[in-house]
Specification:
Layout: E1 3-4, E2 16-17, H1 24-28, E3 35-36, E4 42-43, E5 54-60, H2 65-68, H3 75-82, E6 85-91, H4 97-106, H5 126-132, E7 137-141, E8 153-154, E9 157-158, E10 175-177, E11 191-195, H6 207-226, E12 230-236, E13 246-247, E14 249-252, E15 259-265, H7 267-277, E16 311-317, E17 323-328, E18 336-342, E19 349-354, E20 360-363, E21 371-380, E22 383-384, E23 388-394, E24 403-406, E25 411-412, E26 416-419, E27 430-433, E28 440-447, E29 451-460, E30 467-473, E31 476-483, E32 493-501, E33 504-512, E34 519-525, E35 534-537, E36 540-545, E37 559-562, E38 571-578, E39 588-596, E40 604-611, E41 635-639, E42 645-650, H8 652-660, E43 665-672, E44 680-683, E45 693-696
Parallel strand pairs: 1-3, 5-11, 5-12, 6-15, 7-10, 7-11
Antiparallel strand pairs: 2-4, 6-13, 6-14, 8-9, 12-14, 16-17, 17-20, 18-19, 18-21, 21-22, 21-23, 24-34, 25-28, 26-27, 27-34, 28-33, 29-32, 29-34, 30-31, 30-33, 35-45, 36-38, 37-44, 38-43, 39-42, 39-44, 39-45, 40-41, 40-43
């Protein structure tokens, strides 16, 4: 019978290797039978392993090695293999699928021999090991209906392929739908598990279908990883029963030495390798499995150049305040796009910064009938691309300043006549209130936005006493306007009040309440009256830090910090504001008082993001459990130097969205957008003065 040695014999890490506690004969399911030779105790010597910034492990299903490696049906996986490491003697540890996932995640099949739902396990696992070391893990499952879903199935999603759901002590936030897989890959956790649904993981679909899905959804990360010290692993769980559980395992990344490697490996070896990459403890059988050491070389990061410029930029007006931009993304390594705007086509200022892979943006901050010119460029750590644009568009005409509405053209009651006897009027005449109380003039006024507007009536009153008119808007009386004598029926003056108008059509009626009314020339609707600004203090605020501080809470600090750097030095600021007393939002600005920490660099861009999840606390938030942003950058502000001053971010669109959704609080996140050596430091709510503000009007 053939002899099978389940692990490579290379000594590693000065530990004593003991024989495995799970029979490998059952694990491997060898075709034709195998004799298993117990492992001797061996002294493991030290070996150097890389430490990637991020590891993404994509788990595929039920295909033997030969159906993947060298197969014309899997061109993308073979491209990864030909440019990375492929392991020619990789084996699943069990059948069916579920125990293989458990083995990879926890170093044990947990005694499971089926795909059924079992009580949650309390065993050590990769999530717990990473969290204990201040690092993070999440699984991204295609078809998962929502974050934290714990059901058995949903469409083509299956819980049997999701080990994160099967252990106690793992928060629902680590169990994410694939739609949450970030496009800004710096926001990935330390280790990510990616599980396509059963149509795209080759379980129910074809090899070609799964290979195409992998290329469409993971290749951009694979390209990014080459320049960002990160690793991609493509791992099959088991074969189809035809080849002794012989499966494909592929590594691809800048630290991987290209080639084919013949040592025998299983899911336990892969788990042990990930654990040793980050100096973690070892879960169950991974303690006696050897890490994979043969496929590593010096980290070879190619020279990073500025990204390719976007092209085909267009600008299209959608409303009196909105212009939609669209462009073609020609780069695979941008960190995002910077959008600039001009009102004269000559002087441009920063409008916003988008996430990577963006191909569109809607500018919602325009004024009616105004021409705006835009430019867009891609950027990364090496610099910015050439500009796309300029392109221009003019917002649609709209009634924000209302305009002049002639009385003689309005709807009038029987007791009012359109006249032109007395000179000095505008238009073709005026409305003459001839009869006693109850006569009226009614205008239809279209407003592009809801708000409070000044209503001004031009009139003449040649009588000796004041003549009042009752003013109603959309059938509701809003006040009475008194029209004092003007000395002559040909002398004109104005009188009015402020009234709330809705967006769209409004009926404004002026009704005589006395013996007779004035002559009314016209109604002017002025610019909206700004609502009184509310200055809100933060309910809660904190900054978070990754690396060895990922489990540390900084909620009581007197400072808030942002910084974009390498792993271990990144910092983000999170703030929560109470919206319960905010009735409407026409403008919202986040204001923080701060500066750069040192003069090592200057002019560091810092962006504000929105977060739909407000279920965090100042006393409990850490990098590992922080809420993830749900918007692109809302606005970007440049922190200029070490002199402390107030800085502002426009967050209007997000606050309007949160109020429209009926939320009583809003969470905002600040992130540094440029690699920098100095931190951006701001006063927190715990500071003695200059605490964070949200100014809403």
């Amino acid at each position: 019978m053939p002899r099978f040695t389940p692990w490579d014999e290379q000594p590693v890490e000065g530990k004593l290797l003991q024989s495995e506690d799970e029979p490998l004969a059952a694990a491997r399911n060898c075709a034709g039978g195998c004799s298993i030779e117990p492992l001797e105790s061996r002294l493991l010597m030290a070996a150097t392993l890389p430490r990637p910034d991020h590891v993404v492990i994509v788990i595929e299903e039920n295909q033997p090695y030969g159906a993947i490696i060298g197969s014309a049906n899997a061109p993308y996986i073979n491209t990864l293999a030909n440019n990375g490491a492929v392991f020619t003697n990789s084996f699943g540890v069990a059948r069916p699928s579920q125990p293989n996932y458990l083995a990879l995640f926890s170093g044990s099949t947990q005694g499971v021999t089926d795909n059924n739902v079992h009580p949650k396990f309390t065993s050590p696992n990769l999530y717990a090991e990473l969290a204990a070391a201040g690092k993070s893990l999440a699984i991204y499952s295609q078809g998962l209906p929502y974050e934290g879903f714990d059901g058995d199935s949903s469409g083509a999603y299956a819980r049997k392929h999701n080990p994160v759901t099967q252990f106690t002590g793992i928060p629902g936030s680590a169990n994410k739908p694939f739609t949450a897989f970030p496009t800004d890959y710096t926001q990935l956790p330390t280790v990510s598990l990616v599980v396509p649904d059963q149509l795209n993981d080759m379980h129910d679909g074809t090899v070609q279908q799964g290979d195409t899905w992998l290329k469409s959804n993971i290749d951009r990360y694979a390209q990014w990883a080459k320049t960002h010290n990160s690793l991609l692993v493509v791992q099959f769980d088991e074969d189809d029963g035809s080849d002794g559980n012989h499966i494909a395992t592929v590594f691809n990344g800048p630290m991987v030495k290209t080639g084919k490697y013949a040592e025998n490996i299983t899911h336990y070896n892969l788990l042990r390798t990930v654990e040793d990459l980050y100096g973690l403890t070892h879960a169950n059988a991974s303690a006696t499995a050897l890490p994979i050491t043969s496929a590593w070389g010096p980290v070879s990061l190619p020279v990073v150049n500025p990204p390719a410029a976007p092209s085909a930029l267009t600008a299209t007006a959608a409303s009196s305040s909105q212009i939609n931009l669209a462009w073609k993304d020609n780069s695979v390594d941008e960190d995002g796009f910077k959008i600039e705007r001009s009102t004269d086509g000559v002087t441009f200022s920063a409008l916003t910064t988008t996430a990577p892979n963006a191909t569109s943006y809607s500018d919602l901050s325009g004024l009616p009938n105004t021409r705006y010119t835009y430019r867009v460029r891609a950027y990364n750590a090496a610099g910015s691309s050439a500009l796309a644009g300029p392109v221009s568009a003019t917002t649609l005409a709209g009634t924000v300043s209302g305009g002049v509405y002639e009385a003689e053209n309005a709807l009038i009651s029987i007791g009012v006549s359109a006249a032109s006897l007395n000179t000095g009027y505008t238009g073709t005449g005026y409305a003459d209130y001839e009869n006693p109380s109850g006569d009226w003039v009614q205008w239809t006024v279209n407003s592009a936005t809801a708000g409070t507007f000044p209503l001004s009536f031009r009139y003449a009153n040649g009588g000796s006493g004041t003549r009042p008119l009752s003013i109603s808007v959309n059938g509701t009386t809003v006040g009475t306007v008194s029209f004092a004598p003007t000395g002559s029926w040909m002398t004109w003056n104005t009188s009015g009040l402020n009234a709330a108008l809705k967006a769209g059509s409004n009926l404004i009626r002026a009704t005589d309440t006395g013996a007779s009314g004035p002559n009314v020339d016209n109604l002017t609707v002025g610019a909206p009256v700004p609502a009184p600004a509310q200055t809100l203090s933060a309910l809660e605020d904190s900054y978070v830090r990754d690396g060895s501080y990922a489990a540390t809470n900084f909620g009581s600090a007197t400072s808030l910090v942002t910084k974009l750097s390498t792993t271990g030095f990144n910092r983000e600021t999170v703030l929560k504001f109470d919206l319960s007393k905010v009735t409407s939002v026409s403008s919202a600005k986040l204001r923080l008082f701060g500066s750069l920490e040192t003069t090592a660099s200057s002019n560091i861009d810092t962006a504000a993001f929105g977060v739909a999840n407000a279920a965090w606390s100042e006393a409990g938030i850490t990098w590992s459990n922080r809420p993830m942003t749900t918007t692109g950058p809302l606005s970007t502000t440049t922190i200029t130097d070490t002199t402390a001053r107030w800085y502002e971010w426009n967050v209007t669109s997000f606050l309007q969205q949160e109020k429209a959704a009926g939320r009583s609080s809003a969470t905002l996140v600040l992130k540094g957008m440029e690699q920098s050596s100095p931190q951006e430091i701001f006063a927190s709510s715990e500071a003695a003065s200059n605490v964070p503000q949200l100014v809403v009007s």
